[in-house]
């Protein structure tokens, strides 16, 4: 902590003290009759840091002192709704769109993963097993809600309306890449669609999301919330704790959404944390919390919808822990069979597949059939292959882009360099493959 | 911690004949060893020698390390001494500092130094200052290590050199190996050192084989911290190089030798303490100075060396202004071609040397 933040801490401290004094004054005026503040024989303690009953029996608490937080679900593995009252009312078109997005994620993953293996792009991360979380979340939000992703949430982008073309252009870094070819593949971002650009260092998005929610809250009649994705591994970073604590103490309308997929590269959750997962940390920090089956798209939808309503109506954070399984490898730098069995992976590919469950649900409702499925898979695949081929042929960003955006106003030194480059290119046009780059 | 990506280049580099040792060893008395294996050997030997030494970091145990530098150590030394941690650089470096205060000798592996920014408070405010602030009562014998600097194709948040950052801080020692011999000897010295040492490795060098002498392969081999090595002798110009900068300088020296220019290459090995004596002696011989590093120019290693020259009699030895070859002053571009141009290459060193020798600094600096 530096001097400035020390000073800030002092200021906030003073402010809290003042508030507490006010609260106490009010309490003194209004609670003459409350028995627990009786002068003698006090049974209820009123320490500034804890209001709790006094006891004479010492009791340590541990993880088995509580029941595990249950996992909310709407469907069983066959896509049957377990309690009809819990079935969300989503219109037919949206339901079909949700499923199509999930299929599209799969096809995108399959082909781009292969394209990395072939050396066409430098890096890729697949989303297998977590499609339901992406789609269930995005469908339950308003397009105006701001989403901070971690990096394994391509379905969020797709369902928000980011096109396959835009996504593939990003991975290929051509001149149509909205990120101007400056980031590694899968670092998507779209300000107009309220999707913060993905940042590589883990968990930095968490306090940032809380800060954005704080900014929303300050606007009159705010009707927007922030949703922040993070993984079970990222939750170990110090940033995660800070985000939780600030979300709670600053009363921010933010939905903190943990994709607990069981693995951080090779580190299983059993080595990542002890206790009852990420969800258990919510109530401990004063955050309304729910745990859902992340392979059940409808359960995710319901949880996010309620979390959103609550967060905006009350200016409070909500924590959702969506349980799932990372079916694919961590990234193209990883071969996960080195640390987990093929049988384990298969169980999650088949019985617990979010796509399978959602498809069975749609089929039971008569909204989907195998022919449509076949056509859809083919169409998704073809779109990706075609787009990829086009992306490879597209020109690279304009050479001037390399001088832009390090500073808001281009420093004179860089202006000078750009001018020199321009003159240089005029003088030696044949020495550079300038036709491969976008021109003005 | 972020994506933990080892880029494509890493993959094919790792496929280079890293274990394909020369069969003519008896004749040459040297054997090519990759920097990865040299670092591995250093840790293995020191763990064998001193049971206070242990390794902690992300993916260092069963996974053998994100870049396989800890390969086989978990199997050999077990869970107690090779510890996989939850994902929190701040957490495990703080823990390592505490363990060092309590008498252990932790090796703290950062998956890359880019992620170590999360932990820099423990490195700079805790590890580096504990001895002074405790009035000399508590020293922190700890090694922070991991890949530093540019990799390939991983863009701005994964490609930066922190040598200047750490070496600015009193209390820390900072080393930057270039060869496998450097890597092994410096890491072993770092592990035995009573102070915190930051070991800045280079991901792109991990897979490269460097010849190692029998002496360097022995478990007693050490490279002293704070001593530079003359990597190549010459009389026309002094090239002071940090880490992979040596590679570019050696490449340039070969080209320049063809033109009759003999470069003296100083492999710094340690950035702090800095072996200025070796630099000064060389300048007294060549009267020309060029520095080569991968990091940014502003307040960089080269800037420090030039300042020291200005403040010493070496200044009067110079026949021309000194020149720095550095990474370009930009966030690392993702584009492969721009990335290559943002990093120094032998051609840049050749240009710098030609300018310095021809006293044509103004021509170069206008670019």
Explain what the structure shows.
The complex is a heterodimer of chains A (440) and B (367). Chain A is α/β, with parallel strands linked by helices and 440 residues long. Helix content of chain A is 44%, strand content 10%. Chain A has two domains: 84-393, Thiamin diphosphate (ThDP)-binding fold, Pyr/PP domains (Rossmann fold, 3-Layer(aba) Sandwich); 399-436, no CATH class. A six-stranded parallel beta sheet of chain A has the order 4-3-5-6-10-9, sandwiched between helices. The longest helix of chain A is centred in the N-terminal third of the chain and has 28 residues, at 3-30. The model of chain A is unreliable at 1-17 (pLDDT under 50). In chain B, helix 9 links the parallel strand 6 and strand 7 (197-202). Chain B has a seven-stranded mixed beta sheet with strand order 3-2-4-5-7-6-12, with helices on both faces. Chain B has a five-stranded mixed beta sheet with strand order 9-11-10-13-14, with helices on both faces. Helix content of chain B is 38%, strand content 17%. The relative contact order of chain B is 0.12. Chain B has helices spanning 8-14, 25-28, 35-49, 73-77, 89-101, 120-127, 130-133, 163-167, 180-192, 214-217, 245-257, 276-286, 301-310, 314-317, 336-342, 346-357, 361-365, and strands at residues 30-34, 53-57, 82-84, 105-109, 143-148, 173-175, 197-202, 209-213, 229-232, 237-241, 263-267, 270-272, 289-292, 323-325. The chains are: A alpha/beta (440), B alpha/beta (367). The A-B interface holds A 116, 119, 122-123, 125, 151, 173, 181-184, 187, 199-203, 233-234, 236-239, 264-267, 271-273, 330-333, 338-339, 396-397, 402, 406, 420 and B 1-8, 10-11, 58-59, 62-63, 66, 84, 86-91, 114-115, 117-118, 152-158, 330-331, 333-335, 338, 367.
């Amino acid at each position: 902590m530096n001097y400035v933040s020390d000073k800030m801490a002092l200021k906030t401290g003073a402010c809290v003290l003042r508030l507490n004094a006010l609260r106490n004054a009010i309490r003194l005026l209004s609670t003459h009759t409350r028995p627990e503040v009786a002068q003698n024989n006090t049974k209820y303690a009123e320490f500034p840091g804890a209001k709790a009953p006094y006891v004479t029996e010492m009791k340590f608490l541990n993880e088995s002192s509580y029941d595990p937080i249950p996992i909310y679900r709407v469907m069983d593995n066959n896509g049957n709704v377990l309690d009809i009252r819990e079935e969300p009312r989503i219109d037919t078109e949206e339901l079909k769109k949700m499923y199509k997005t999930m299929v599209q994620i799969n096809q995108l993953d399959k082909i781009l993963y292969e394209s990395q293996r072939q050396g066409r792009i430098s890096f890729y991360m697949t989303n297998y097993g977590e499609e339901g979380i992406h789609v269930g979340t995005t469908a339950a939000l308003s397009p105006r809600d701001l989403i901070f992703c971690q990096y394994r949430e391509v379905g969020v982008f797709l369902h928000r309306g980011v096109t396959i073309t835009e996504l593939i252009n990003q991975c290929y870094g051509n001149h149509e890449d909205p990120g101007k070819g400056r980031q590694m593949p899968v670092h998507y971002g779209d300000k107009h669609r309220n999707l913060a650009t993905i940042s590589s260092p883990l968990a930095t998005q968490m306090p940032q999301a809380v800060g954005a929610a704080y900014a929303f809250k300050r606007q009159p009649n705010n009707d927007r919330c922030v949703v922040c994705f993070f993984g079970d591994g990222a939750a170990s970073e110090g940033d995660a704790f800070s985000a939780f604590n600030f979300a709670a103490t600053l009363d921010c309308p933010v939905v903190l959404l943990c994709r607990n997929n069981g693995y951080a590269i090779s580190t299983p959750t059993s080595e990542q944390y002890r206790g009852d997962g990420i969800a258990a940390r919510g109530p401990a920090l004063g955050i309304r919390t729910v745990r859902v089956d992340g392979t059940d798209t409808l359960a995710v939808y319901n949880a996010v919808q309620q979390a959103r309503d609550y967060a905006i109506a009350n200016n409070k954070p909500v924590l959702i822990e969506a349980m799932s399984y990372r079916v694919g490898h961590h990234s193209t730098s990883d071969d996960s069979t080195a640390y987990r069995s093929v049988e384990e992976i298969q169980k999650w590919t088949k019985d617990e597949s979010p796509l399978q469950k959602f498809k069975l649900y749609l089929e039971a409702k008569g909204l989907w059939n195998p022919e449509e499925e076949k056509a859809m898979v083919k169409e998704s695949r073809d779109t990706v292959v075609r787009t990829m081929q086009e992306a490879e042929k597209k020109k690279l960003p304009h050479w001037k882009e390399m001088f832009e955006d390090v500073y808001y106003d281009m420093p004179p030194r860089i202006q000078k360099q750009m001018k020199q480059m321009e003159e240089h290119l005029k003088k030696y046009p044949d020495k550079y493959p300038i036709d491969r780059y976008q021109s003005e | 911690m972020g994506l933990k990506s080892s880029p494509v280049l890493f993959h094919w580099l790792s496929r280079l004949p890293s274990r394909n040792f020369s069969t003519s060893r008896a004749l040459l008395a040297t054997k090519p060893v990759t920097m990865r294996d040299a670092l591995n050997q250093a840790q293995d030997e020191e763990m064998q020698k001193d049971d206070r030494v242990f390794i902690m970091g992300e993916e260092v145990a069963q996974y053998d390390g994100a870049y396989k530098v800890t390969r086989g150590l978990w199997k050999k030394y077990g869970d107690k001494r090779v510890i996989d941690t939850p994902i929190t650089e701040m957490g495990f470096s703080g823990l390592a500092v505490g363990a060092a205060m309590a008498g252990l000798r932790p090796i703290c592996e950062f998956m890359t130094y880019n992620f170590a920014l999360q932990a820099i408070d423990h490195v700079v405010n805790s590890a580096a200052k504990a001895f002074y602030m405790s009035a000399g009562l508590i020293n922190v014998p700890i090694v922070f290590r991991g890949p530093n600097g540019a990799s390939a194709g991983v863009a701005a948040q994964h490609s930066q050199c922190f040598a200047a950052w750490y070496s600015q801080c009193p209390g820390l020692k900072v080393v930057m190996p270039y060869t496998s011999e450097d890597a092994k000897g410096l890491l072993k010295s770092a592990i035995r050192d009573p102070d915190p040492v930051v070991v800045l490795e280079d991901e792109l060098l991990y897979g490269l084989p460097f010849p190692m002498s029998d002496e360097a392969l022995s478990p007693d081999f050490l490279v002293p911290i704070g001593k530079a090595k003359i990597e190549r002798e010459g009389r026309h110009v002094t090239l002071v190089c940090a880490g992979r900068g040596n590679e570019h300088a050696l490449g340039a020296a070969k080209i320049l030798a063809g033109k009759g220019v003999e470069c003296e290459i100083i492999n710094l090995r340690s950035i702090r303490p800095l072996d200025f004596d070796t630099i000064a002696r060389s300048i007294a011989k060549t009267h020309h100075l060029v520095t080569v590093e991968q990091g940014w120019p502003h307040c960089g290693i080269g800037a420090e060396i030039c300042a020291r020259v200005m403040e010493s009699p070496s200044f009067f030895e110079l026949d021309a202004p000194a020149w720095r070859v550095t990474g370009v002053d930009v966030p690392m571009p993702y584009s492969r071609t721009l990335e290559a141009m943002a990093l120094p290459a032998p051609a840049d060193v050749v240009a710098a040397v030609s300018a310095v020798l021809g006293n044509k600094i103004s021509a170069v600096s206008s670019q």
